[in-house]
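Input chain follows. Return structure tokens only.
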Amino acid sequence: MTPSYAMFLAFASLLILAYCNDCYVSAATCHPDDESGLLAFKSGITEDPLGLLSNWKPGTDCCFWSGIDCIDNRRRVRFISLYGQPDNPKGYLSGTISPLLSKVRNLRSIQFIDLRNMTGSFPRFVYNLPNLIFFSIENSKLSGPLPADFGPLSNLYSLNLKGNRFSGSIPDGLRKLKELTALHLGENRFSGEIPNFWDSFPKLVYLQLQHNKLSGGIPTSIASLAPNFQNLELNNNQLSGKIPEFISNFKGLHTLDLSSNMFTGVLPKNFKNLTGLRNLKLARNKLVDPFPALAIDRIVSLDLSYNKFKLGKIPEWVVSSDAVESLKLAGCGIKMRLDDLKPSWTYYIKFNIDLSDNEISGSAVNLANGIEDLEGFWMSGNRLKFNLSDFKMRESLKYLDLSRNQVFGSVPESIVGLEKLNLSYNRLCGKIPASKFPASAFKGNACLCGSPLPACRRL
């Protein structure tokens, strides 16, 4: 979930709470329709390894069941929020969503996040929930096409179906959701062109269609979303053509991600108007110079990798930002000594930098050792020359790629704390310390020896 979308979730929850008048906690049990609807949902669950629904028991107050909130003076269920644990292989529910959940008539918000194994098609029972304004089923296994008609859901503020298996074209019927402020259909299997109906969404702030199979260009009606539009994520599709000039009019845009598509040509000169951008990702397209002179005041995440840019140096507006958390300029034609880089960055947890496949020389020691929370450091395919023993393998460091440089010295034992490592094709010598890494991580160093490479010869 992106940071901007997480902020929206928090805002939406506050907005929903505003509907509560004269709220109080009563000792009464919940309404029988609410109880029967929720128990019907539980009956459709085939696996609940963590007992998320263990206190959903008949005859008890469902307003105190896990994931349930009753925020009104009539003791009616208003919110269902069930979250799995994606880092735990047993941390999610399995089963189907019972249509009898529609008996919980006062529902305003449904959030099923990271339940992973919830199967079936789009749950049409939500058409029978007239008060529903927030609907999220994220990271499950729902599949099939979306319905053609969304009219019964015309009060929705947010629709989030990210991370499922929905397929087919994005239906025209979505245009009836005129109250939407956020639409998230990313990480599904939608195909065809992006519909040209965005002038039907006067309040839309977040649009996320990433990781699908969408083709064609960016439709002109997206221009109507200015000036309040904040987030556009169309990455990892099959989109083509030029990046349209009208994107420069989104003065409030915080996140623009068009990476991993087939966009061509130059960026519009008026991109310099997007001073409020925090996340700009254009990697892996076919964009060419001249790269416009931008004036972003506090860039947080930047990825321009593997286009046809010849930047020459890291842009000044990047070097002077104190908010950078992720900088990826791989294959951007950068020619500089890394020792000369004196950034203003205030380092954050999980800082990542990728300057691979450029013409960068000098030492990486001062830069890397100065980042206390460095998580990923990718510098392959440059001309770096330094002693690896001087490089701090911090506890935070998980990913290190220094391959295809001129790094010398020995391999330190501290590599054991890394998750991924590539030191191939350098000038390292000596015995490799015991680790989990394959031979490919060390090949191409003439005098490295020991497992996983051939044994060291005794003198």
